[in-house]
Amino acid sequence: xxxxxxxxxxxxxxxxxxxxxxxxxxxxxxxxxxxxxxxxxxxxxxxxxxxxxxxxxxxxxxxxxxxxxxxxxxxxxxxxxxxxxxxxxxxxxxxxxxxxxxxxxxxxxxxxxxxxxxxxxxxxxxxxxxxxxxxxxxxxxxxxxxxxxxxxxxxxxxxxxxxxxxxxxxxxxxxxxxxxxxxxxxxxxxxxxxxxxxxxxxxxxxxxxxxxxxxxxxxxxxxxxxxxxxxxxxxxxxxxxxxxxxxxxxxxxxxxxxxxxxxxxxxxxxxxxxxxxxxxxxxxxxxxxxxxxxxxxxxxxxxxxxxxxxxxxxxxxxxxxxxxxxxxxxxxxxxxxxxxxxxxxxxxxxxxxxxxxxxxxxxxxxxxxxxxxxxxxxxxxxxxxxxxxxxxxxxxxxxxxxxxxxxxxxxxxxxxxxxxxxxxxxxxxxxxxxxxxxxxxxxxxxxxxxxxxxxxxxxxxxxxxxxxxxxxxxxxxxxxxxxxxxx
Length: 487
Known about the structure:
alpha/beta, 11-stranded mixed beta sheet, 23 strands
């Protein structure tokens, strides 16, 4: 694409008067620049792209987009906000790919990953070519790629959608984080359906207050647009049991469809029956009732099923087909995942890393646990400190024995994190501190007897442990399995 044609999408107050160069790619990483690239200078948390502009030119950049003048031998286009401009340019350069897809976005504190996988499976079972972007990986048709962020930067995102279109993907499902919404990473994404799971305490290190956190989430629903698409209507799928849904309802002009358990909703779950192997309930829509038996347990699983069911229903998929897909789902990696190694006690690995998600998982375990409940749990470093005592208190309230340990301490002292957790359980004697996560898991496994349940919480599918600047291989499931075999 020619540079002038590309820049016209920015509607510059001062039109670009320089040479009309051929732009071969757009990059915001100087190491990826090649001959003919437009390099965009982005100010990050730790580095400033403006400091790497000269390096980008040496690597072949034909032009640079910046927020201040730079002494370079190529054209430098000045804009007030390069991040906002990057989203516009990426969308234009890659041919507005999300207008060629059905795009479903899921936001909320907990349940995004499971819900996105459920929705993707429903569409795949329907015979659609699908794409998935989220915490665990990015999937384009039948290929998967590693994910660095739950929701990538706008440039990576639009390039990924462009690749999806090229591979014939018809429906893309994406987890949308509050950070991404607040930072404008999804600007330019033409969502067809936006799904809200729930809102509980998390990320207050970034958002500072729950009101700000909720405001960030509301942007997904506002970004469904202000016009009515009668041929291809847009939908906001909201959890009627969560009070935040009222704000999201007022933020959107799209059609609103609600789901819930405890509050009257358009789509509701009733007569819920849980066992240690699955959950039966009825999906109620008006006067109609549809029985469903899923291979997942917990009230939170019912919510995830309702959210997925509703998103698929408003997308035109027949009810019976949706139910068939959901009933055949065996679970998502690291989400209430059983570790089996021939033992006579239960070991569960779960991503629960917020007070609400930990409470939900432990409550579910108490439904079927016959004897003692052990929980191995920690809190991440360089993240919201206020949730640490809450996590500890919940662990001690619902488990028989709690083992507090490390969970990606990053730059913080692991002992200091554990002391923050301890503040929530003063005077309680049902916990033990073992800073080394492997030792903590081994200890729990060695203490367990027949019929007991061990929950290893916080990391789920993650296969690493970040201590300081080092990242080590670490998988709760592998460590637990080895501990069981060696005991």
